[in-house]
Each structure stands twice: as C-alpha cells, then as structure tokens.
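Exam revision sheet. Question 4 asks you to relate a sequence to its structure. Input first:
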Amino acid sequence: MVSLASRACGGDAVALNDLLAELRPLVVRTARLVVGSGSWAAEDAAQEALLDISRGISRWRDPAAVRTWALRVAIRRALKVARRERLLRVRNGSGVEGLEERTPGEGREVVLKQAFDSLPPRLRATAVLRLLAGLTEDETADALGCSVGAVKSNLHDARKRLTCLLSDAGYAPTVEQRKENSDDRP
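Answer key, structure tokens:
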C-alpha cells in the first residue's frame, strides 16, 4: 500500500485508483460503524470520505501512514454525518438512548448493533478505531485529533455504556470468574 500511496501522492492516476480500491473496504466499514450500517447516510459518508482522500492525496507527505490518514478522513466525515443524523432523530422525537424493543427472533448480534448504534458518535468512533479497526491508542488519537488520554477515557465510557445496555437487554457480558478454593491456596 505504501508504494501505491507514494505514486498516488506523486500524481499517478492509476495508482490513486488502485489505492482507493484498497482503502474502500476500510473506509466504508468505518463509516458504516460510526454512522450506523444500513443507512444511506453511512454510504454517503463513505463516498464523501473517499472523495476527500482523492482530493487530498497530492498534499499528503507521509505515504507510510496513508491507512491512518484515510481512517482520520473517514472518521471526520462519518462523525459529521452521525451528529447530523442524531440531531434529526432528536428533532423528530425518535430519541437516541436505550434499545428498541426486539422481536423474539432477534439475537445477540441485533442487540449488540442497537447498543453500538446508541453510543454518541465520538464514543462510537473511538470504539470503532480501537476495537474493530485495531488501531493503537496513539493511532486512534491521531485519527481523531485528540490526546491518548481522551482515547482511553472515551473507550472506557463506550465499554461501560455498552455493558449497561447489553445487561439491560438481557445479555450480560460473560467474564470467567476465578473460583477461589481453599484447596488451591499454597
């Protein structure tokens, strides 16, 4: 990817197309996770992010960090769209907190998606980058334009909210508890 990015930064149109093809799945997945999958707004955010990448690549000076930069562009665009969508839901009275009623056939994945989608956009973006995209705390901070401490705090808050929402929905996190036994003590 680095050689493609280097050539794209230099103005090679074919390399740019190939680079965008490689980055597209990452950008689309990120936008869908931040905005909410299955919405036209998420698809628009991904397309706009790819356009932003295409327009900005000639000014990019670090081809080795093109993945982090592309994620930063995608997150920035997705956060704008997610905030707009959240405001529209509030204005329309459909709310933003809690989980919707589920039908008996819906499983853990649906409840998890609803819980994840109910997170505020900034917490959701942090969780997407750290937990799903696999970025380090430093890379996440760089992509979000914040401090590492803010990343840690946001991730802690996101996990806490997800735990509460999932527990309320009947899906308590599974944590192996160590059984203290008097026979195990030295």
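Marking note for examiners. Confidence is low (pLDDT under 50) at residues 96-105, 177-182.
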